[in-house]
Specification:
160 residues, mainly beta, six-stranded antiparallel beta sheet, elongated
């Protein structure tokens, strides 16, 4: 926008002029359609991790760690850009843990012995799936009450 000022006596007049230039360019779009592979985790079956009896005074984020046994298979050609993610109801005190039904208890998901933050993603190779584990954790030193507990999460495989 070009501004031109005219001064007459004590008043100031500002005149704004607008010049629009139109230009046009053609666009082309192209790509290749391919059959996307259909991938499955654990052949569509629920992954069960059983902790058995867990001592209320022994939950420390180390004791009772369990391997998460799972498989990922893809029909057809394996995608080069396959990722895993975990989703669930997160607790405020641990970004890698899903809420359990017992107060002050959660189940932390780990990948290669490090917390696997819920909602984050890791790239995977179908020939060498990452080791995942689950371990009970507590909210600081808050007490745990004896009783049954459950927790749930969703393991997601996707490609981009």
């Amino acid at each position: 926008m070009k501004r031109v000022l005219f001064r007459t006596g004590q008043s100031l007049l500002m005149l704004a002029m607008s010049v629009t230039v139109h230009a046009a360019e053609n666009m082309k779009f192209h790509g290749t359609l391919v059959n996307a592979p259909d991938c499955h985790i654990n052949n569509g079956q629920t992954i069960e991790v059983t902790f058995g009896n867990v001592g209320v005074n022994k939950v420390d984020g180390i004791n009772y760690a369990r391997k998460i046994d799972y498989t990922v298979t893809c029909d057809g050609e394996s995608p080069d850009n396959l990722y895993l993610s975990v989703d669930g109801t997160r607790v405020a005190w641990d970004s890698a843990a899903v809420k359990a039904s017992a107060d002050n208890l959660a189940i932390e998901i780990r990948q290669a012995e490090k917390p696997f933050v819920l909602g984050s993603q890791i790239r995977v190779d179908l020939t060498a799936l990452p080791a995942l584990s689950a371990v009970p954790v507590r909210d600081g030193d808050r007490p745990l009450a004896a009783g049954d507990f459950t927790a749930g999460a969703t393991l997601i495989a996707f490609y981009q």
